């Protein structure tokens, strides 16, 4: 069983479109995250979310919005896609404690043309 | 601004040698420290974590932490070509009610047969 699953794995779309990436975890973790990895492989946090609180990285454009229907899911919606949004997006989950690392999904490679 | 610094490499070592990967962090309140391995086109995979000053060994891997110097390192003994990957140092801190991992930009390791 996949612990953290993301769909789709690849996404090619035109500028200006709206798209969503889905993420599900079956680990029973209480916190989920979205990270963006750019072409230089730098992983940068976008959002963290548990059932109490959404923390947004202030540098993330408001075209990006996370949606969590329940504890096991954290989807990412992107409006009005731009060329600079092309990257690999990783979902991750963890227990909300300093003791645990994150488990990452397999990533979604988004290409905006 | 909480920062994690790593040499980007590439770091090349011959097969069988010890690979030494280094990382410094800016926030003295950081609580836990992680090393991830990322193969090209794959997601980050947790390989080591350390919370206390000193060394922690797991198989061929040893993590070292010096909180006074704000320094973390990863030693890979008997390096194998399969160890060739990008190694990401990550530091966890508590902020705004959640625990977040801040990643360095990664060090690319090449093990030469």
Question: Which helices and strands occur, and which strands form pairs?
Answer:
The complex is a heterodimer of chains A (113) and B (113).
Chain A: E1 4-7, E2 10-13, E3 19-25, E4 31-37, E5 43-50, E6 54-56, E7 64-70, E8 73-78, E9 87-94, E10 103-104, E11 108-112
Parallel strand pairs in A: 2-11
Antiparallel strand pairs in A: 1-3, 3-8, 4-5, 4-9, 5-6, 7-8, 9-10, 9-11
Chain B: E1 4-5, E2 11-14, E3 19-25, E4 32-38, E5 45-50, E6 54-58, E7 61-66, E8 71-76, E9 85-95, E10 98-103, E11 107-112
Parallel strand pairs in B: 2-11
Antiparallel strand pairs in B: 1-3, 3-8, 4-5, 4-9, 6-7, 7-8, 9-10, 9-11
State the assembly state of the protein chains.
heterodimer
What Rg of chain B do the Cα atoms give?
A: 14 Å
Q: Sheet with the most strands of chain B?
A: 6 strands, mixed
C-alpha Rg of chain A, in Å?
13 Å
| Tally of DSSP helical segments of chain A | 0
Structural class of chain B: mainly beta
- N to C succession of SSEs of chain A: EEEEEEEEEEE
């Amino acid at each position: 069983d996949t612990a953290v699953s993301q769909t789709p794995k690849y996404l090619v779309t035109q500028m200006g479109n709206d798209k969503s990436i889905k993420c599900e975890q079956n680990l029973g973790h209480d916190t989920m995250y979205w990270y963006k990895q750019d072409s230089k492989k730098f992983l940068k946090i976008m959002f963290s979310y548990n059932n109490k609180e959404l923390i947004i990285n202030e540098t993330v454009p408001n075209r990006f919005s996370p949606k969590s229907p329940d504890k096991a899911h954290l989807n990412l919606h992107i409006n009005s896609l731009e060329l600079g949004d092309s990257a690999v997006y990783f979902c991750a989950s963890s227990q909300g404690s300093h003791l645990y690392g994150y488990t990452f999904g397999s990533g979604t490679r988004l290409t905006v043309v | 601004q909480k920062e994690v610094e790593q040499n980007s490499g590439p770091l090349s070592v011959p097969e069988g040698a010890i690979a030494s990967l280094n990382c410094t962090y800016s926030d003295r309140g950081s609580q836990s420290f992680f090393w991830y391995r990322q193969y090209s086109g794959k997601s980050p995979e947790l390989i080591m974590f350390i919370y206390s000053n000193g060394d922690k060994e797991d198989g061929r891997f040893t993590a070292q932490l010096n909180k006074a110097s704000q320094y973390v390192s990863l030693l890979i003994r008997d390096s194998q070509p399969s160890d060739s990957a990008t190694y990401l140092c990550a530091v966890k801190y508590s902020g705004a009610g959640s625990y977040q991992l801040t990643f360095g930009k990664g060090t690319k390791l090449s093990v030469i047969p």
